[in-house]
Amino acid sequence: MGKSFAEEMVNRKDWWLAIHFSTFQARKDLAENRELLEVKSFVVEAFCPRYTSMYHRVGKEARKGVTSEAQKAKRAKKRIRNPRQLRNIRRLRRESGQQSQD
User: Fold this and answer.
1) What is the per-residue pLDDT across 50-87, written as a single tens digit (0 to 9) for each?
2) Region labeled Disordered — which residues (predicted)?
3) What secondary structure letter does DSSP report for 21?
4) Alpha carbon separation from 65 to 60, 61, 94, 101 (Å, rounded)
5) What range does the domain containing 89 cover?
6) Do 26 and 54 form a contact (C-beta atoms < 8 A)?
7) Are 16 and 54 in a shared domain?
């Protein structure tokens, strides 16, 4: 009962990682519970660095199409650098009744 986590992992490492951190399991976690995938990614990175790339690859695929509204707005502002374009956008927003967010 007094065994440390590291001692227990030595005995289980062969099968435990294969069961819990397979590509299949990562995709299943992604579909069912994204938070679990993030926790498992952290655990894999901390304790089993050689498995990290597999879980990061699945996580990266999951994040490909997901961008927050704040990121989208930031990108849009970066694209508009010409002051004339900004004035035109503000004018169009005023005319359509929207408030300026700049």
Assistant:
1) 666 666 666 666 556 555 666 667 677 666 566 677 77
2) 61-102
3) S
4) 10, 8, 32, 25
5) 68-102
6) yes
7) yes
